[in-house]
Amino acid sequence: MSTPTTTEGSGPEEPIHVDGQTELDAAVSDYDVVLADFYADWCGPCQMLEPVVKTLAAETDTAVTKVDVDANQQLASTYGVRGVPTLVLFAGGEQVEEIVGVKSEDELRSLIERYTE
């Protein structure tokens, strides 16, 4: 797991690429709010969502993790991911939201802010 720079009280400014349950669990325990982006390199909608996810990592108090479903099929199955992109939001160590498909930056930002404010 890469550890990008952080500022006090917020998540990393870059998405964290996680490989496996242990790394995702570590991110969920290290940060109050975590947005896990389950994606695939071949997925067009995932590529459309990528700049939104990067912006949210840089501009919100959430840690954004990236989970490649092809490399982490068991992890995707654990969270019931049936299609990509799927975003799973964790707050206080618990899964609180699941979003399937591409959503706008504003929609995702307001969802995150429900748990970070």
Describe the structure.
- It is a single chain.
- With about 120 residues, the protein is an alpha/beta fold.
- The protein has a single domain, classed as 3-Layer(aba) Sandwich (Glutaredoxin), CATH 3.40.30.10.
- Helix content is about 40%, strand content about 25%.
- The chain is built from four helices and five strands, in the order E-H-E-H-E-H-E-E-H.
- A five-stranded mixed beta sheet has the order 1-3-2-4-5, with helices on both faces.
- Helix 2 links the parallel strand 2 (about 35-40) and strand 3.
- The N and C termini lie far apart (about 25 Å).
- The relative contact order is 0.21.
- Residues about 1-10 have low confidence and may be disordered.
Fill in the CATH topology. Glutaredoxin
The figure for the number of domains is 1
Structural class, from secondary structure content? alpha/beta
The rounded Rg comes to: 13 Å
Domain Thioredoxin: 1-117
Organism: Halovenus rubra
Pfam families: Thioredoxin
Protein name: Thioredoxin
Describe the structure in brief.
The protein is α/β, with parallel strands linked by helices. Helices cover 38% and strands 24% of the residues. It has a single domain, classed as Glutaredoxin.
